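Q: What would this chain look like folded?
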Amino acid sequence: MSKKLTLGILAHVDAGKTTLSEAMLYSAGTIRKLGRVDNGDSFFDNYEIEKNRGITVFSKQAGLNWKDSQITILDTPGHDDFSAEMERVLNVIDYALLVVSGLDGPQSHTETVWRLLRARKIPTFVFVNKMDLAIADRHEQISRIKGRLGEGFVDFSVDKNDEEFIDGITFYSPDLAECFLENLNLPEEGVRKAIQECQIFPCLFGSALHQDGVDRLLDAMSSYTYGFDERREDASLDDKMGALVYKVARDQRDERISFVRVMMGTLHLKDSVAVRTENGELLHEKVNQIRIYSGQKYTMVDSALAGDICAITGVGSSRAGRGIGALAEDETRNGIIEPYLSYRIIPEECVEQNKFVADMRILEEEDPKLHVAVDLGFRGANIRLMGEVQQEILEAQIMSRFGYRVHFETGNIIYKETVTEAVEGIGHFEPLKHYAEVHLIIRPGERGSGIATDSIIPEDVLSRNWQNLILSHLDERMFRGVLIGAPITDIRITLAAGKAHEKHTEGGDFRQATYRAVRNGLLHAKCHILEPWFSFEIKLPSANIGMAMTDIRNASGAFDEPIIDGDMSTLIGKAPAVALIDYQRKLASYTGGRGYISCMLIGYDFCHNESEVIEESEYEQDKDELETGDSIFCYHGAGRTVKWDEVQDFMHLPFALEKETDSNKREDSARAETMAAGRKLASDAELLAIFEKTYGKISKGNAVKRKAKPKGSDYHAMEMQKRSLHRLERVGSPDTHFIIDGYNLINADKHMKELSKADIGAARDHLINILANYRGYLGCKMTIVFDAYRVPYSFGRKYKVSDTEVVYTKENETADAYIAELTKEIGKRESITVVSSDALVQEMSLGHGALRISSREFLIDIETALQEIREFLDENR
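A: My prediction, written as structure tokens:
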């Protein structure tokens, strides 16, 4: 039986990605003639816009068979301006094929793609193309890739018994290194697993244009990949159909089609599938057609199986990034790439405003990142774009599809706002027969973190249902800042206090109180504006390097020492996007056309000219009708509005931030005393409570006896325990902060792994209970991190169990990424020990100075500690 996999092909523009896609189809016999992008007759780039520009704008699919593999290729855009179209494809692929030009090496967009792939843990193959024109050999090519993208790249173009191949594999995979030392060979299954776990990234070389190296690439992907069914983690819902929409488009007859990947079950023609609409309503819509596309052509089928990529018609409410069928309730996968330019687009006079808006809504269905917004009383619409090329493509699209011209007003940078100090926001909503009060602590978050939320309220103070409702209100909308009305980002909002009324509180009351609390906090906070920043690489004649350096300095940018290579120089650095958007024109002017700049959006950072931006915006915080920090209190039987700066005089609950600060001081003081006294065992009662909570009541009949000294076959166990006791002395002190990869630890224990298959929630609770007891025994700090997609909340959550912090990451944030950031954040002031068997987590932790323990070793440590408890109880019973 052949295996089924979906492959996303990604690259920087002009790396030869589309040419390679066609070469693979040609080698497999899917197509009989090779086209060329520069001739406008390629198999994939068949839209007129793409032929004219010679670039890929829309993702396409085609299938091929190679040996035992059925491979669906998804060819994606390579230009920065169409990164969002590329990112949507990442939601449905099994493996990525990253194409790098042998002439130019990794470019700015290559780094963007790599960052997205690593965030999603997508196993990746690399094909270095255009080797017929390249000067650098294979070793130099891999060295360039490592210098730009990091470690893990291994040359797979050599024989598998070659010393170079073996050294590369074993260097990045400890398991395969151990296997090779024992057996003197590398099992193909082990290599396949190392690729799947993103320990290694196979690199192959050739020329797609000349069909060189293409067969070897297909052989490698056929040999070293797992099929869709082999990679699935949960097959319990096979009887229910669930699919993920990754693209919405219109065919040549203007019929709406949804491109989906069936993730479970079977999709049948005429099925009625569940779809979640834009306003949250759940509808059931009938599938009229199921199409399997190959380029622009398609065949009609009656059904699609799990793992298939297909297009369906009849489902008119679908949205890219959303599930249908059994996945309709899942969270939307929005991606992390967001446009940073805002334009006003206006149609020619003969076009009615209503028609224009309707047409723009159609385009927004296909590209949700356009964010079409209409201001009443103004002609046209506001949209968001990534750059000038996307603007030109959109203009041509509107002309070809709708038959009229549009023009764009000058684009503006999209700014954001954040806070730089912790502040408490209070919201009270109490008109007659309504009641809710909410206190939120708003803190600055990591740059690029968005908005994370959590709660520290005990459930006996405010019920979990009310807390969940408040947290969902924090997640359901975009909050505007108080400086220029820009979106708020990079903050952590903690629900610190809340109060409901037994009879008068309704769900809408907490919505009002929550919104008001956010605004109230921002009005009291120290706020600042953030702007998009680019990393850049400028290549220009050495005679002109001084001009470029002056321009970057004047724009508040920074750069490294210039790299001078004869009469040409390279300047690498970062600067505000506003300074670099049109810099290519200026660069071409003063270098006589010999200068070139490549840029990559690296995120948002503090605005270099904040006061000017605030002055130009003319935003008046007190006149924003959509945002208010005022509260409503009941006064003489009626609701009375209290201004935001007076709310604290009327609030019903005390300040939470002051109480939290006092509590932290007490905790720090107690911790200091414990550290001064050194590690000591708990009292008899504490030890007994820990033991009985984990293992049940102890009676004389079932008391745990001390084991005799191990002999013979027990020698290994004794040695492991010795090692464990040594580790406990090294890392198990009160000043240690354990950061634990939760699911990795569950999977390392046979009992918990089996439990997780039946009930993942029960497995989590069991692990948390054990670790909370262990933390109490050691007297240290502990944070347990779980991936967001494993829990029903996607906006990030924190709470404590017996002083053990439990973290659920936000959507699109892996436990790996969270652990790395947390280790980096607190590693300078605390002694960190990271618990995970994941090689990537261990590598990142070591880079931030943390100690590392594998999940298996940590389980032995816990058992050793429990054995100490058992022996102590036996001796003192």
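Residues 516 and 634 are 16 Å apart (CA to CA).
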